[in-house]
Amino acid sequence: VIRCRAAVAWAVGKPLSVEEVEVAPPKAGEVRVKIVATGICHTDEHILEGSFPNVDFPVIPGHEGAGIVESVGEGVTSVKPGDKVIPLCLPQCGECSFCLNPESNYCLKCHVSEPQTVLPDKTSRFTCKGKQIHHFLWVSTFAEYTVIPEYAVAKIDAAAPLDKVCLLACGFSTGYGAAINTAKVKPGSTCAVFGLGGVGLSVIMGCKAAGASRIIAVDINSDKFAKAKELGATHCISPHDFKKPIQEVLTEMTGHGVDYSFEVIGLADTMTAALASCNMNTGVCVMVGVPASGSVISFDPMLVLSGRTWKGTLLGGWKMRDCIPKLVASYLEKKFNSDVLITHTLPIAKVNEGFELLRAGK
Ligand code: NAD
Ligand code: ZN
Ligand code: ZN
């Protein structure tokens, strides 16, 4: 058993509490990883607000991490102690019917199908003050050591800087893949990206890499515009600067709407606005933002009947275990620069400060 620090969420709406926790050794088919760095994604904030489905408290959140294998359980063959790894918040068991489908990156062992609040044997490896603490998406990267099933761990290049490539565990890969894999943005096209957090900025990088010629960035926080432009946005607009709905503004700017629109916020209203912003016949709208649990969208069916495509993405469509090591290789070859997404670097003791910065739009 390892004693180390972890940021524990004891209850909905409470700040995280940095505690000493006990982390049990990995059982058969499991890997214990020393987490070196982790990002904060808005999905972690959804958990603290209690709006992510099926999460049990107390829980150790965090799902955008990178680390080093400390020990492995019986039967583990794909990684060994000392290997650099990225824990996968979307597993790839390689055996379920979805994993066997080359078109799908959804694994039937993921949280959407079966809550990953305990490990597959239905027990937790974390305790704190005599209480069992739940896992989050099996990865719980806000712990200095975490135990993960082998099929939710990807071995990466030993040269990878863990404090940078941790962003490939969620935010960067989700946004970049939403453009490249899910929307399949074509060269010369026009795109609109709603929400310029880490994920939305990564969508812009993906649209640019795919050759889009116009990329319109939309956010209510105009402080986000400089970075969006640096990454490839050709126009930046705030819905607050217009009297008419933003979908009308975008339709006027483009003639018949954009070719591809992306909602990267997680609100029902902006999801329908993004749908209405794309071309009524050939437009593709991708839902990336995670809506609050139980939210419902009502929309005019004519929006889709005229031919638009409305789709969603989990982690940008990448089959995680196969693709994350390749994305790390591309990072090392400087094919993209996800480092620009890093705004602050803090020690784990200041994790709540990190969330304050996220809430303040910094
Ligand atoms: P973030 O908080 O860093 O960014 C959100 C941005 O949206 C902010 O810049 C904010 O100003 C802007 N915004 C808020 N309300 C707005 C409005 N009404 N109109 C325009 N802009 C508005 O968040 P993030 O970490 O980039 O995550 C974005 C979303 O993506 C979250 O919902 C997160 O849960 C989701 N997400 C989904 C996946 C997936 O697999 N589909 C993966 C990662 C994150
Ligand atoms: Zn995330
Ligand atoms: Zn599977």
From TrEMBL:
Q: Which GO terms describe its cellular component?
A: cytosol
BP GO annotations? retinoic acid metabolic process; retinol metabolic process
Please indicate which superkingdom the organism of origin belongs to. Answer: Eukaryota
The residues the entry assigns to the signal sequence are none
Tell me the keywords, alphabetical order.
Acetylation, Metal-binding, NAD, Oxidoreductase, Zinc
* Annotated GO MF terms: all-trans-retinol dehydrogenase (NAD+) activity; zinc ion binding
The record's section on Pfam families has: ADH_N (PF08240), ADH_zinc_N (PF00107)
Instruction: Please report the stretch or stretches of sequence annotated as the Enoyl reductase (ER) domain.
Output: 13-361
> Which cofactors does this protein require?
Zn(2+)
Keyword Metal-binding part of the UniProt annotation: yes
Q: Which family does it belong to?
A: Belongs to the zinc-containing alcohol dehydrogenase family.
- The entry's protein name is Alcohol dehydrogenase I
